[in-house]
Amino acid sequence: MSRVGIFGGTFDPVHVGHVAVAAWVRAALDLDRVELVVANQPWQKLERPVLSAAQDRLSMVEAAVDGIEGVVASSAEIDRGGLTYTVDTLEGYRAADPGGSLFLILGSDAAAGLETWHRYEEIAEMAEVVVVDRAGALGHRPPMAHRVVECPLVDLSSTRVREWAEAGRPLDGLVPPAALAYCRRKRLYG
Ligand code: ATP
């Protein structure tokens, strides 16, 4: 019976905080793998006009996790297309492996808003909710049953990475090297 962690995000761009969470949760919960599921069009971020192309965000995640045992990129939400709802993603994983166990991994900022997500009760039925603390949202918890996994705090967000990129600051050490190389090659984020 497979044990799979689903770590969804916009990854615009992926940063080292994302990668550390995936690896640490996988180890803590003895998961077969953690999938970084790249959102196609996240409903929570509809008001944000500029989002890097889904394919570029996916390529950056693929590059970032290459060589990390048990951590992979998933194009499931991009392949499905349209607005991205986590409940649909979990249904897809359940249909593909009905006997497996799913773990939905959320930073504490995202977890605190889980109740507002589309069909959130079903989300909690289909997957075990796993929360990791995030700088700026310490101790934020969802109201439903969940477990907390301790990870090193990485005080980083994609928003700040984009801001620093636009300001010409170095991103080395913040974005995994192979993802950063892709980013530079494609001239993303200014
Ligand atoms: P943005 O700043 O563009 O909103 P983000 O850095 O929050 O991006 P997302 O791709 O939106 O990144 O996040 C995906 C998931 O990763 C969410 O569950 C979020 O809480 C979690 N996450 C992001 N950054 C961190 C971090 N530094 N530490 C722990 N969890 C994080």
Strand order, largest beta sheet: 4-2-1-6-7-8
Tell me which oligomeric state these chains represent.
Answer: single chain
Number of strands: 8
Nearest-integer average pLDDT: 95
- Proportion in β-strands: 15-25%
The main pleated sheet reads as: 6 strands, parallel
Label the structural class.
alpha/beta
Distance between the termini: 45 Å
Rg to the nearest angstrom?
A: 16 Å
Report the bound ligands by name, code or SMILES.
adenosine-5'-triphosphate
Tally the helices: what do you get? Answer: 8
* Uncertain runs: none
Order of helices and strands: EHEEHEHEHEHHEEHH
Helix content bin: 25-40%
Shape: globular
Would you mind describing this structure in some detail?
The protein is globular, with a radius of gyration of 16 Å. Helix content is 38%, strand content 19%. A 6-stranded parallel sheet has the order 4-2-1-6-7-8, sandwiched between helices. It has helices spanning 16-29, 54-65, 76-80, 86-96, 108-112, 120-126, 158-166, 177-185, and strands spanning 3-9, 33-38, 41-42, 71-74, 83-84, 101-107, 128-132, 147-149. It is α/β, with parallel strands linked by helices. The structure holds adenosine-5'-triphosphate. Residues 9-12, 17-18, 21, 106-107, 109-110, 132, 134, 154, 156-159 line the site of adenosine-5'-triphosphate.
